[in-house]
Amino acid sequence: MASTLISGLAVAAPAVAQDDDVVVVTGSRIQRTDTVAPSPITNVSAEQLAVVNTVNTEDFINTLPQVVPAFDSTSNNPGNGTATVSLRGLGTTRTLVLVDGMRFVGAGPNQVVDLNNIPSALVESVDIVTGGASAVYGSDAVAGVVNFIMKDDFEGVEINASQETSLGDLDGDITTLSITMGGNFDDGRGNAVISMGYTNRQAVFQGDRDFSSLTNWDPGPGNAADGFIAGGSSNIPGTRFRGATSSNFGAYGAGLVAADPLCSGNTCSGFFNSGSGIVPMRFGSPNDTYNYAPSNYLQLPQERYNFSAFATYEVNQHLELYGRGVYANNVVDSQLAPTPAGVTLTYDLADPNIPAALLALMTNDPASNNGDGTATVRTSRRYQEIGTRNSLRDTSSFQLVFGARGDINENWAYDVFANYSRSSISQIQTGNISVSALQQAVTCWDQSLPGCSGVPYADLVNGPNSLSQAGVDYISRTGAQIDNVELFQTVATVNGELPMFQLPTAEYAPALVLGVEYREASAESIPDSVLGPDVRGFNSSLPVAGVVDVYEFFAEAEIPLITGKAMVESLSANLAFRTSEYNTVGNTETFAVGLGWQINDQIRLRGNFNRAVRAPNVNDLFAPFTNGFPGAGDPCSGGANGSYSAATIDATCLAAGVPAGQLGAPFQGNAQMEALFGGNTGLGAETADTYTIGAVIEPNAIEGLTVQLDYYNIEIEDAISTVPLQTLLNECHLTGIQASCDTLYPAGAATPSRNPATGEMGANGFVPNLSPINVATLSVEGIDLRVDYSFAADVIGLPGDMAITYYGGFVMASDFTTSASSPVIECAGLYGLDCGEPTPEYKHSMQSSWYTGPFTTSLRWRHIGALDADPTTAGFVSDLSDDITAKDYFDVTFSYDVNEAFTATVGVTNFTDTDVPELGSTASEQANTWPATYETLGRRLFVGGRLRF
User: Which segments within 467-602 are labelled E, that is strand?
Assistant: First the structure.
C-alpha cells in the first residue's frame, strides 16, 4: 500500500487510459508517449479516496478547490436524493461527467449525472479538467470535465469492507462491502473483471444536533445581542385562521388583537386554537410558529447495490474487443416536516364544531361572511396527523459499452464504440393532501348534508391533532412519478502521425485524431394524477418528454514546433475543432488552441483557449407549461397596479398592444399577473470562452517536488435564465431593450400577452410567457496551485518516506448577471440569497502521508476561507449571520499491512470536531448552515479492511 500511495501522491501527471507505452490523457484524444497534459488537470487517485474512507465520491470531490458543492448526502430540502458536481460553481448542467472518457446517463430531464450510480469501489482515479472541453467531448463541457477512470484491468480477488460512525452521538452509520475479481485468460490476450458492492447509510435528523434542532430566525441588523429567535412556519398544527381580505378579520378582530396583552410589544397576525382557546398568533419574540427542523434529515439514508463487469480481448494486433456493463440500484429517502398548506376554505357557519370565538370572527368580518350562511377564510395548517412528508427515490441505472480498437498500420490506429445507458427512477411521495377533498370534508360536519354521504368531517378548528383518522385517510394522498432517461452514444476515431508534415525544427511528427459521433439523449417524466395542481405537500408535477440528438465531426492535432534546442526542449501546439448539428439548436462549432513550452527538464509552460458550448437539455426545451402569478407593476398602466410615468417609453407600450387611449390609465386590474412558465423550444446554445495559462515546475535542486500553477478565466454568454416579469417590463418599457420586448410580446404568438381592447396583461387568457431565454452571463477567474512532494523521512529525523499533496484554489472573481440590464452580482468570498453556496476566495486540501515498514499514517488538512454574506443578505441579518469565519478540518488515518494479503485501516475525520457555522434561516441553505460545504456530523470514526489474493 505504501508504494502505491507514494506514486499516487507524488506524480503530477493525470491518470490515463493506457495501452502498452501509449497513453490518452483526459481532456484530449491524442495518443501520447508521455503524460504531459495539454490542459490543467487535477488528479485524485484511488489511494487518496481510500485513505479517508470515501464511500461516495462527491464527498471527496467537494473538498477540492475547483468545486463548489452541489447536492450530496446532506441535501434534504433543497435536494432530490441525487449527488451531483458543479465545477467552479457554474452549475451541474455545465459540468460534463464521464466514465472512462465516455458519457454517463443523467438522472432526470435535466440530464445531470447522479454520482451515486457510479460504483466508487471500482474507481481507479478521478481527473478534473479545468475550462471548456467541448471541442474534445461535445456539449456541456463548459466549466470542465470530471472523468471517472475505472479499474478495468485487474487480476486476483479483492474484498473491501468498512464501517463508519459519528463518535459524539454514535449515529449516522455507513457500512460498505465490495468484492472485485479479475484475471487474464487465453495466454494473457484477454482480461475480465467483475465487481459487486453494497452501501448502507443510516439517517441523521436535524433534531439530533443542537445547531440544527431549531429554526433560527436572525433578529435583524443591529440586534445580535438578542441572539437567534426560535422561529418557524406560520403553518401550525393548531391552524392559523385569517380573514378573506385582512389577517385579523377586519375591525372586529383588530380590536381583539389590540386588547390582548400578549400582543403588546409583539406582532400578531391571524388567530389559532392553542388548545385552550382561540388566541392571536404571535410572530415576534416569543412567537407561536411551528419548528419544522427536527424531523428533516441532516444525513439522508441510502441503500445501494452495484454490479460491474469489464472485459477486453486481443484478437490480433489489428483488433482488440472491449466491453463493459455497469448496474446500480440506489435508494435514497428525503424527509420533510408534515405538510404545510395555506388553503382558502369555505365554512358552514352552522357547523357546531366551530368554537364560539372563531365563529364570531367569521361572522363579524363583512369580507369573510358571505351572507349565505357560509364564510370564506384563509387557513394555514401543519397536517401533522398525516405524518412527515417522504420522497423515496429508487433509481436503477445501467450502462452497456461495446467497442473495437486496434492498429491500422505502424502510424495509425482506430477506436469505435457504442454506449447505451439508461436510468429508471421511481419516486414515491407520501404525506400530501388534496385541496378539493379537504374543502369537501370541512363542510361535511353532518353526514346527512347533501354530498356528504361517506365523507368524514375534517376538523381543523379545534387545535392540534383534531383531525380524525378517517379525516386523514380521506384527504391524504400518495403520489408517484417515474422518470426514464436514456443516452445512446457512438463514436469512431482514427488517430496517428503525419511524418510528411514533420517540421525540420522538430524531432516528432504531428499527431492527428479524426472522429465522428452520434449522440441521442431522451428523457420522460411521468407523474401520476395525484401530483397535479390539487395536491399540497410536495410540489406538483406535470409530464415532461423530449429527445435531443446530434451528429458531430471533430478533429484534434498536436504539432511539435521545436524540439531539442536551448531553452526550448519542446514547443508544441494543440488544436481541436468540433462541428455539431442538433435537432434543436442547429449547428454549433467549438474549437481549442493551446501551446506547450518545455523550457528544460525543470520548467514547462502551457496556455489554452477554448470555445465551448452547452446545448439546452430536455428540461430546458420541453418542460410543460404551468401557471404562476408573479407580482409586478405595469409601466404602461396607471393606478395602484401600474407604474406609468414620464420615464415610460410610450412607443413600446403601443407596440405591445396597449390602445393609445389607455396609456397611463388604470387598466391593470391585479398586482399579481398570471403568466406561463415552462420550456422554450426556441432556446439557443450557451457559449463560453475559457482561458488557462500555467506552469509545471520540477526543480532538480529539490528532488521529488512538482509544482503546478494555473490561471483560469471562464466567461459564459447567452446562459439560459428565467427573467422575472418586473425586470422584463422595466427593460422593455423603461429602458427600451428590444430583446426584452420580444420576449414579452413574441411575434406570431397565438394569443397576445395583452388584451388588445384594454391593454391589460395577465388576465382573461392574455398572459405573458416567462419561459427561459438566452440572456444571462456568468464568469469566474482564479488561480489553482498544486504541490506534490515526496522525500525520504530521514531529513526530518524519521524513518521511512513522506509524501505531501496540496491542492489550493484562489478565486479572484465569481460573477453573474440574470438579464440584459441587471447589475453584475459578485460572489467571490460571499454566500447568501444572491450567491447561494459559499464561494471562498481561498480553499485548500492538503494530505501528508508517512510510510514506515507496514505502517502508513496520513493526515489531511482541509481549509475553507472566511466569507461574508452577500449585500442582499447582509441587509436582512445581524452580526450573527453576516459572516463565516475560516474553518479547518483535520482527518487522520492509520493503516497496517498485516501481511501481503490483508491491510487494516482506522481513521477519524474532523478529529478536532470543528464547530458548524450556525446562521439564521435567511442566510443559510438548510439546517441553519450550508451542510454540503461544512461538516455537520462532528467527529467520525471509520474502520476498514482490505483482503487481496
Answer: 476-497, 511-527, 535-536, 544-565, 568-582, 586-598
Q: Nearest to residue 736, comparing CAs of 747, 748, 728, 746?
A: 728
Q: For residues 272 and 370, what is the distance between their CA atoms, to the nearest angstrom?
A: 21
Tens-digit pLDDT profile for residues 788-817: 999 999 999 999 999 999 999 999 999 999
Instruction: Give the model confidence (pLDDT) of 32-67 as tens digits.
Output: 533 466 678 888 888 888 878 888 888 889 999 999
Cα–Cα distance, 449 to 456 (Å, whole number): 12
Q: How far apart are the first and last CA of the chain?
A: 14
Q: Which residues of 25-60 are buried (b: 16+ CB within 10 A; e: fewer)?
A: bbbbbbbbeebbbbbbbbbbbbbbbbbbbbbbbbbb
Mean per-residue pLDDT over the chain, rounded: 91
- The 3-state secondary structure of 535-554, one letter per residue: EECCCCCCCEEEEEEEEEEE
Q: How far apart are CA 611 and CA 522, in angstroms?
A: 26
**How many CB atoms are closer than 10 A to CB 68?**
27
Partners of 16 in beta bridges: 25
* Whether 508 contacts 560, CB under 8 Å: yes
Q: Which amino acid is at 597?
A: W
CA distance 236 to 216: 17
Tens digits of residue pLDDT in 776-795: 999 999 999 999 999 999 99
CA atoms within 13 A on the CB side of 127: 25
Residue pLDDT, tens place only, 920-937: 999 999 999 999 999 999
CA atoms within 13 A on the CB side of 889: 23
Q: Taking Cα atoms as reference points, which of 416, 423, 380 lies closest to residue 401?
A: 416
Give the CA count within 13 Å in the CB-facing half-sphere of 487: 23
pLDDT for 8 equals 29
- Strands, DSSP E only, in 243-383? 268-273, 278-282, 297-299, 302-316, 319-336, 340-348, 374-382
pLDDT band (50, 70, 90) for residue 84: very high
> What's the pLDDT score for residue 882?
96
Grid coordinates belonging to 38: 495539454
- Give which of 630, 658, 634 is closest to 645, Cα–Cα: 634
Give just the sign of the alpha carbon dihedral 220, 226, 228, 229. Answer: negative
- Residue 551, CB half-sphere, CA atoms under 13 Å: how many? 3
pLDDT of the residue at 747: 84
Instruction: Say which DSSP state 805 is in.
Output: E
In angstroms, the CA 934 to CA 917 distance is 8
Non-local CB neighbours of 600 within 8 Å, separated by 6+ positions: 567, 569
Contact 39, 889 (CB under 8 A): no
Can you count the helices (H) and strands (E) in the chain?
Answer: 13, 46
Cα–Cα distance measured from residue 248 to residue 278, given in angstroms and rounded to the nearest whole number: 12
pLDDT confidence of residue 58: 87
What per-residue string of b and e applies to 449-459 under the rule 16 or more CB within 10 Å gives b? eeebeebbbbb
Note whether 685 and 718 are within 8 A (CB).
yes
What would the 3-class secondary structure string for 640-690 be? Answer: CCECCCCCCCHHHHHHCCCCHHHCCCCCCCCCECCEEECCCCCCCCEEEEE
The helix/strand/coil state of 906 is: strand
CA 909, distance to chain mean position in Å, is 24
Where is pLDDT greater, at 583 or 123? 583
DSSP code of residue 77: S
| CB of 524 closer than 8 Å to CB of 623 | no
Distances (CA, A) of 243 to 353, 368, 369, 605: 19, 6, 9, 71
Give the residues across from 582 on adjacent strands: 550, 586
What is residue 320's three-state secondary structure?
Answer: strand
